[in-house]
Amino acid sequence: MKCKSPVLSMMFGLAALCALIAASNSLAAANPPIPVIGSGAATFVSGNFTYDFNSQAGVFTGSGTDNVGGPYTFQGVAEVGPTSSTPCTAPDGSAGLEYPFVGVDQINIYKTGLLYYTLNSPSDAECVSTTRPYSLGGVVHLIVVSGTGTLGKVSGTFTETFTGSTPVIGGGYFGAESVLITGSITK
Question: What is the maximum span of the chain, computed from C-alpha positions, in angstroms?
Fold first, then answer.
C-alpha cells in the first residue's frame, strides 16, 4: 500500500529512525563496563626468567577471588629494574627504594576459562624497604590480552595493589604478598 500523505510518510520515516536509534542504544548497553573487585594472595621466588637480561623476574603462584569469574588460581612473572636511587616509604613505614617494573605477565585460571594480562603502565613501580624483613608494596596496572572459555571475549584493565615481604634478598629472593584488585571490564 502506497502512502499518499507527505506528513504520514515523514512520521513513518521518523518512527523507523527512532526504532533504529533505540535498537543501537540497546545493543551498546548490552555490554556495559563491569567494575572489578577482588583479592588474592601469592608466594614468589626469583626465577630463571628475564625480560631485559639485566635482572631476574619473580615467579608468583597464588589464588584469589573476584567478580569476573569467581575463585581462581594464578601464575605470573614480574621483573623490576636491578637498581634504584629513588627513595620511598615501604608499607611497614621503613625507608625504601623504588624499583620500576620492566615487565609483568599473569594468567588467572578460573573454572570457566583463563584470562591473560600484561603490564599496561611502564611507569609502575614497587617500593622495597632497605632493611630486613624487606617490606614491599606497590601498584601495577594490567590490561587483558586474551581469554578462553566463557571469558574469551573479556576486555579491560585491572589495577593490583600489593603488599608483602621477603626475608632474603641477594643471589635470589622469596616471599609472600596480598593483593587487592580493582578495574573495569566488558564481557
Answer: 88
